Every structure is written in structure tokens, then in C-alpha cells.
Amino acid sequence: SKAQATEVSGIKTVLWLQDLPNVLRKLMVEADNVYVNKNEHYRVTEAPQVETREDRFVKQLKVDYPGHTYLRSNPILQRLRSVKEPEEIQLIQQACNITEKGFRRILNFVKPGVWEFEIEAEFVHEFLRNRSKGFAYTPIIASGNNANVLHYIQNNQECKDGDLILFDVAAEYANYSSDMSRTIPVNGKYTKRQREVYDAVLRCKKEAEMMLVPGNNWYKYHEELGKVYTSELLGLGLLDKADVQNEDPAWPAYKKYMMHGTSHHMGLDTHDYGLLTDDFVAGMVFTNEPGFYIPAEGFGIRLEDDYVIQKEGKPFNLMQNIPLEAEEIEDLMNK
Ligand SMILES: [Mn+2]
Question: With the CA atoms of 147, 43, 257 and 123 taken in that order, what torsion angle do they form, in degrees rounded to the nearest 10?
Fold first, then answer.
């Protein structure tokens, strides 16, 4: 009922949809400016092939009311959505906590011979029994060289002794996302080389964390991180000085091993709205997800947590309770 709609939403005036044309007409003849919505997400790279219901509505508005000034609501919405309310952060935290349960469960489950889809099933079972509606996005469970296929979602291979498994798996809760990546050894023990790369990625993640502070912005952040990646890849012997000296500034040498962005807004969408040119401000939620991908060595490693930018100092890590250090993961797998 209308009364119930008011009760759950706090909205005082609730009307039936059939009243829309008349109410809209009354409002339009009193208004000069109309803000219309359009998906301007930076990840939308080409014009959509299908006209949405909203597109048709805007088109009709312009036919019916040609003399109005039409403006974009999107910059306003982008800014509203990129800075989260405390209630929203609580829901994202809950999504992260459910993701943690799933991850701890599979640490007890993974062993040589297990199939990627079996791990996927463990995750979703744990998510649903904690009142999540499921995965926040199509999960990546990539053992061995599958980790080097950036959006590997087949999850249909057997996990082999000696290989790593890269997970990019997380729960939704109350329509809010979480977004986690971890990389674990199938047999419960990283090799010396796997561990070297693991610790290098982890250092990158810790460096990135220090830069998720107010006043920085997405572009400066990525430029600085390029230097961190370059230095770690030199240390791992994956790049040499000549590679760096001769690099193409448009595609720096480090991108051979780390070819994706380090952070994105997260919230109602896993890749949430937000204007990348805006400075970071308190209440924005970002992922932090460095990775090194080495097909020649048969593995790839990505580590990802979700953070809330604070007014001052370090960001708050919503995934601080999810095992991350290599020793802790080995200990839990061998318990
Ligand atoms: Mn992510």
C-alpha cells in the first residue's frame, strides 16, 4: 500500500505509476530545466546497441516538451554514488565479512585434484547460507596458467599439485558488492619462486594502500604505482634496465606483467560509478588489486582488498580480517 511504501522509504508522497503522465505534465509546465539520466560509466566504451526504457522516456520528453533545457544528471549521480553513507559502508562491510567466511572455508577444502567448479560451489554455498544472494560478479577461479587469462571464468579445470589458484571471488549483500582476490597454493605450500612473486605483489599492495588518501586522485595514483611495479619487476628479474630505458611511455615495460588498473570505485556495482578526475575524498570505497602475471612460469598472482578513504591518514581496510600473508594462508591450509 502507499502507507507501507512511505513507511519503508521515508518518502511522504507516494503515487501509483498510472498517475505519472498527469503529474509529470503538471511539473513540467512549472519547470525550466530537466535533468535526464544516461549511463556515462567510464567502462562503457561504445554506444549501447539496445535502446533502454529510460532512453525512450527521454526521447519522448523532448518531443512533448521541446522548449525545456535538458541537462545531465550523471555528474551529480556519479558524485553521490562515489561517496558512501555510513549505512552503505556497513552493508559493504557485511558483504566483505561473508566473503571472508567463503575464503576461510575453501582454505580447508582445496587440495590437489580438486576442480575449480567445486571450489566455486563451496563459495556460493557459504554465501547463500549467510543471506547473500550470491556472487557480486562472475567468479574467477583460475589454477595454474588460467590465472594469466585476465577474465577467466570457465572454472572447469582440475587443480594440480604445485600450481597456484588465483581467486577473484566475492559476495554481494543487500545489493552491495565486495571484491576480493587471493592466490593460494593447491598443495598448501608456496614454492620459493611463487613466494618471491607473492611477496612482491603484497609489497605493491601495501604501497598502494598508503596512496589511497584524500587529495590524491586516480590518475596520479596509477602513475606513482607504475614506478613501484617497475622496481619490483626489476627485483624479480622479469624486467632489466634496458627494458625500462627503451620503454614506450604509452605502454610502459611493467604492463607486460601488470596490465590492468590497480583500483576502481566499488559499491552498488562492483565497478561503481565515480568520476576518476575527482580527488579522493573520505567515504569513497576503492579496491586495491595489484597483480603480476607470468605465463612463462605458469602462474599469476593478484591480491585485492576493499578500502574506505578516511578524512586523514591510511584508508580503512574492510577486508583486514581476511587472511592475506603467505604464512597465514599456509598455516590455515595445513591445520
Ligand atoms: Mn576488483
Answer: -20
* CA of 291 relative to ligand 1 center, distance in Å: 11
Taking the C-alpha atoms of residue 324 and residue 326, their distance in angstroms, rounded to an integer, is 6
For ligand 1, the distance from its centroid to the CA atom of residue 180, given in whole angstroms, is: 7
Domain ranges of the chain: 82-333
> Around ion ligand 1, which residues have CB less than 5 A away?
179, 287, 289
pLDDT given at position 322: 98
Alpha-carbon distance 240 to 256, whole Å? Answer: 13
d(CA 67, ligand 1 centre) in Å: 43
From the list 69, 2, 85, the residue with the least C-alpha distance to 36 is 69
Q: Which three cell numbers stand for residue 112?
A: 590437489
The torsion angles phi and psi of 274, rounded to 5 degrees, stand at 165, 145
For 223, other C-beta atoms within 10 Å of its C-beta total: 10
Average pLDDT over residues 137-153: 96
Q: What spacing in Å lies between the alpha carbon of 160 and ligand 1's midpoint?
A: 26
Per-residue confidence (pLDDT) for residue 317, from 0 to 100: 98
Q: Is the pLDDT of residue 46 over 80?
A: no
pLDDT digits (tens, 9 = 90+) for 84-106: 999 999 999 999 999 999 999 99
Using CB atoms within 10 A of its CB, is residue 248 exposed (0-12), middle (13-18) or buried (19+)?
exposed
- The mean pLDDT value for 150-159 works out to 96
pLDDT digits (tens, 9 = 90+) for 67-77: 999 999 999 99
- Asked if 301 and 290 count as a contact pair (C-beta separation under 8 A), the reply is no
CA–centroid distance, 95 to ligand 1, in Å, is 14
CATH of the domain spanning 82-333: 3.90.230.10
- Rounded distance from Cα 290 to ligand 1 centre (Å): 10
Instruction: Tally the residues of the chain.
Output: 335
